[in-house]
User: Fold these one by one.
Assistant:
Number 1:
Amino acid sequence: MLKHTTLPMPPPLLQLRLLSKAYPGVRALAEISLDLLPGEVHALVGENGAGKSTLGRIVCGLTHSDSGQMLLRGQPYSPASRPDARRLGVGMVMQELNLIPTLTVAENVFLSRMPRRLGFIDYATINSQTRQILHMLGLVDIEPDRMIASLGVGQQQMVEIADVLSRKCDVLILDEPTAALTGRETDLLFKQIRRLKSEGVAIVYISHRMEEIKRIADRITVLRDGKWIATHQAAGISIDEVIRLMVGRELGEASSRKRTPGPVALRVENLRRGNVVRDVSFQVHRGEILGFAGLMGSGRTETMRLIFAADRRDAGHVYLHGSSTPARIRSPRDAVRAGIALLTEDRKQQGLLLPMPIRANITLPKMSAVAPVAGWISGGKERTAAHRYARVLSVRARSTEQSVVELSGGNQQKVIVARWLYRDCDILIFDEPTRGIDVGAKFEIYHLLSDLAEQGKAIVVVSSDLQELMAISDRIAVMSAGRLAAIFPRGQWTQDSIMAAALSGYRAAAV
Amino acid sequence: MTVQEAKVLDYETPPPRRVNYTAFVVEYLGLVLALVGLIVIFGLRSRSFFSPATFRTIANQIPATVIVAVGMTYVLIIAGIDLSVGSVLALSGAVLGVLMKEYHLSLFVAMAAALGTGLLCGLVNGIVSVRWRLPSFIVTLGMLEIARGLAHMVTESRTQYIGSAVGVIAATSLAGLSLPFIIAILTALLGQLVLSCTVFGRYMVAIGTNEEAVRLSGVDPRPVKIAVFAIVGVLCAVAAIIDTSRLESAAPNAGAGLELQVIAATVIGGTSLMGGRGSVIRSLFGVMIIAVLGAGLATLGARDETKRVVTGCVIVAAVILDYYRHRLGRSSR
Ligand SMILES: Nc1ncnc2c1ncn2[C@@H]1O[C@H](COP(=O)(O)OP(=O)(O)OP(=O)(O)O)[C@@H](O)[C@H]1O
Ligand SMILES: [Mg+2]
């Protein structure tokens, strides 16, 4: 095993010494020591709940470690708060989105440092500066005065990244920054990371996307159950080895068994909403997984929300199970009753009941099943049901009574997936189902989706991860600028053809 | 508490039913101590505190306030607020009084009309705020004025003296407890059961926690919210019947300022104004604390303005304490 101390290197910028942190009933970090060198990208990997975010939160001043110490540029460092850490040059992009939905992009970016003129916010300045910051990350299509709530999760993530990048810092922690980003935005982000690297910034990069880590990381540290497992030079270790260190066992292959799709379960015709979704038509069969690819903001999430009637559509119809009359779906309630499930991409705002127990989060969409008599909840039935589905997803928690807010990001995501499996709909629309989920659990979810398809469910998966779509889909639909640009059956797609289709709509618009 | 490695749930054994005593103690100990403490302090400081008169004052005040507080707890849990409770109480009482006195209707018919009045006011509150997505603060502020105005119109601004025909309710007692008292306790118990054991209760907490998430999981939050406001309206009418019966009269300005008193009691009980958190039983304690405080200060000869200052301080102190209780409760789970 290569140990970093044996190599000639510049003095570390940040040193972590025997950091430990316990939460009630769980040891999130156990005596972690790490050195962070200037100009390096240090990848931090590990399963969901391994303690990566906790480490990041301690370094950027959001929580304190129970014991251990940190040295920044050789000086003892213990930030009292996030602004305190920021002043000392330590910044972090959080795993969960933390923008205020009702404020504009510019207001969010300048929230803690509003330039004022005679006591009034100087909007001209913040808007133009925000535009500059956004352009740096290639975000030309986001106006600084747009409301955050109108942005997709991927775009919000980019705004947060742009915000942190615009502040001068020496140590930068990126906690799963690309979980909701497509290839194009990831490339833009990596360009900025390389620039920062050349300026001597030390970067901690947390991700579950192994190919990214291979591309960007100089060193890789593996955590498991809050413990330090190994630190390696990225060049000297293969992805498979990293995964083995992470999970402590070998992983299977993503199986893409050949399925024979059944009759049409869902047919969508000329769905339209403003210029976000323009005349989208497609169909999904029972026993089929239809993937949805496209760039950020191409209208995939909005299309799904229209099918589910989460938003009002301007035009278009949804037909179910081969019926020739359009289904009357006017609200999410109608949709669920008609057997459609929508797992939303934004788990924090649109999915989870954060302070409530895992149990209540899972059983929410079908309380009647656990309250057989006149609306009285049967405690035993509910616990058993919640437990069963938490187990299918291997949610890592003390018990199903634990508050969801205390779970790691990936485990929160598993709770949402468990909720919809429990609801047992025929048509499953999953928007970014594996956002923030670790490699091992991802494979389990792929297997699960494949099993569900074999049971005759119709499944739609929206994902920013093209590899994932290519691994699990029977067909891939590609959206571009609000239109459905192409649908490829399995075997007829290549990464290039999908990317070309994803860009086609924007090219046409530019001409 | 043992510190162990984070691990996947123990999926082999079925989930146990575990009563968390620590959480239970944290939940109620503070309130019980506060109540007992107040009683002891007033008992030591004032000779007349442990007198039938004090007891009567408290016992008279509690039933109506508790019943309204049950409803207020519900509204606060769904992240709403109802400012119209005092006025709706007055209007329901006025309807009861006028029907019995002017139209000589029987107690039962008049009671049904009073309950209908409360229900109607609650439904209007609920439907208007849900249909037009208005903050319930504004809608119920409107209702506060409307119902009060109507109460004056119905009674022509005169107190309706009904007499013993309506007094029977307050005069009835079972096993040494007055009927109003029994109704109040039953309402609180039932209210707590509905909150913690039924689907409706779960929906209320979920809506107060994240309404959008509830909507997107296929549960329509609107009927639940309307039902909550309707329940508050009915409970106000029940409180009105009890108060009217006790006083044997209905006054158009009954229940003035009741909304603040009830909100204070629920907040002392630890219900969050942000929604998603609250307990009926704890609100019951809140009502008792406020009642004991008021009666105790009166026996000490405190003037009205002093009472208000002290009550105000207690409310703020209770919320601060609740902040710490909440943190303690979280770390002991
Ligand atoms: N506020 C909290 N209260 C209780 N436990 C917590 C809290 N925050 C984190 N934990 C626990 O600490 C452990 C580590 O969590 P952490 O968020 O650091 O994981 P992670 O490695 O970032 O996982 P993921 O890949 O899912 O984001 C988990 O077991 C989690 O349940
Ligand atoms: Mg994390």
Number 2:
Amino acid sequence: MAKALMLARLKQTVVAAIGVVFSITMFVTLLGFMNGLNQLLDNLVLNRTPHIRFYNELKPSPTQPVELSDKYRSFHNVVRSIKPAASRMSIYNNEAIIKTLLDDPRIVGVAPKIAAQVFFNVGAIDVNGVINGIDVEEESRLFAFDDYVTEGDFVDLKNTANAIILGKGAADRMLASIGDVVQVTTAQGNSIQLKVVGYYQSGLGELDNVQSYASISTVQKMLGEPPSFVTDIQVKLNDFDLAPGMAKEYSAIFGIDADDIQTVNAQFEAGSGIRSMISYAVGITLLIVSGFGIYNILNMMIYEKMDTIAILKAIGFSGRDVNLIFITIAITIGFFGGVLGLFFGFIAGLGIEQIPFELDALPTIKTLPVDFNPKYYVIAGVFSLVTTYFAGYFPARKASSIDPVDIIRGK
Amino acid sequence: MKGKPVLEAQNINKYFYSPEKTRVLKDVSFQVTRGEFVSVMGKSGCGKSTLLYILSTMDTDYHGKLLIDEELVSGKNANRLSQIRNEKIGFVFQFHYLLNEFSVLENVMIPGLKLDKKSKQELEHIAMEKLRIFDMQDHALKKANQLSGGQKQRVAIARSLMNDPLIIMGDEPTGNLDKKNSDIVFKIFKELAQEFHQTMLIVTHDPEFAAGTDRIIEMEDGRVLRD
Ligand SMILES: Nc1ncnc2c1ncn2[C@@H]1O[C@H](COP(=O)(O)OP(=O)(O)OP(=O)(O)O)[C@@H](O)[C@H]1O
Ligand SMILES: [Mg+2]
């Protein structure tokens, strides 16, 4: 029944379906592209950011000596101009901590790190910088370090003694090319010569101007510290939503400071949230507009087919049967329009993914990013059925309440 | 078989409220028994069509009682009434009212498809048989709008027979046809009465037609004048 009515009004039906196809295509493409970009930007920061970072913060000790004395403990003591104690930057007993962390099934991996303030001595001037001493393999595995080494080979950091990978910005400022040797002075005054084996480029200029990388043992040696010296422990989780809770949990257990990724990147999250909200809004608007198209066409169909509806009712079709016929038409349009739309959306996504997109700042990206997350396809599919159902609902109800006597008498 | 009431109207009254309250049917009571071929006559505007819509359960806004196949249908819900129409009543209109979206054969089959008691092949076979009665079998695969007026009306009658209804009701089924075609349709009705003992209640303006039926109900101004 529904089929015959649709065939009789093939043109309108096809137009309605094209509306759905178009909006679903746009919806899927837009969301895929928007979220591809979002992920790209997220990854720029989040991929390289540890989910939890343990460290010792320089701060005054919470109990001052006066409070330890038996004599003054019961008094209310005022101490002015408190300075931080010369406590260790190094994380005490870090090997045991790392071992405990690695036993936690929620944790993917752990990488120790030392951040050292240095001066690069370039001729007569000194350039400020930070050298990160890293566990080269773990850093690559967990935080995609290797992706951002744009020139040179990151393993040389481990295999060559006293090697350094310079931030691209820093290297440009120092006019240091690969193979050159740079002179480095630590804050404590130790000097050391390091060989440049590569450039590091994150895409975030301010990072690339100051950050350089060396192996953890090189930095320990440079600082004159023992192999147990570690200032940061970086943790990657299976599910980074757990980060705030776990940061608190372990911070209390180990008695050290911990930062979680959510707190550190809160404003970043907000940005990507707004971007995907906008794309959902545009997509859903498109779908609703096409829903109105279907509504119009079904309404027209019902006016044209009054006689048919009347005769069906006279023959013994109930209001419910008539309702079902028009709902079926709407859902069929929604279904086929939706399926085609998803297909074209997928094709459009593939197309966009072919468009070259190269930026110096984004070394890992060669083409425009598209996210093919099935979630968007499911949402679009469900939404096309829901909108077409509602678009069909009111015309169908009208059709089902047509009084055959009125129509037949009107002839 | 004969003597069993198929249709029973008891004191049916019908009012129209626009433009003002008018009583269009006044205490209409009669009975149609199985196998009867009844015609209803009366002046234009006396309420024949109105009565027929009530008897066919399409119009439920009336006072009085209506029994079909000894079942009280007044006050039944719309779904049950649809079922009764589908199973027990065949309706033929003045205008043929075929569905142009379908072929002739499909048009005849629709009531059977709705009833959903037989397979599609069986229904096709039955529909073909019905078309054969009216010598329309050669047109089975044409679209409904490719037929002449007289042919359409024959198909419409075939359709009304599809579920072997208890009673066929017609509202001036020959009213829109020329002499030749109305003669053909009239002959068909007589054949149905004589060969198949089909119970029929037909509204007509044609005295010749009425004269050929078993019984004439004459109406005037909303009342049954003579039975
Ligand atoms: N919807 C309506 N509202 C008000 N009055 C109506 C309505 N339909 C019909 N009538 C009136 O009811 C009366 C009976 O109409 P009906 O159609 O039953 O007459 P009829 O006997 O079939 O006439 P005809 O032989 O011309 O077909 C007429 O006077 C008509 O004007
Ligand atoms: Mg009439």
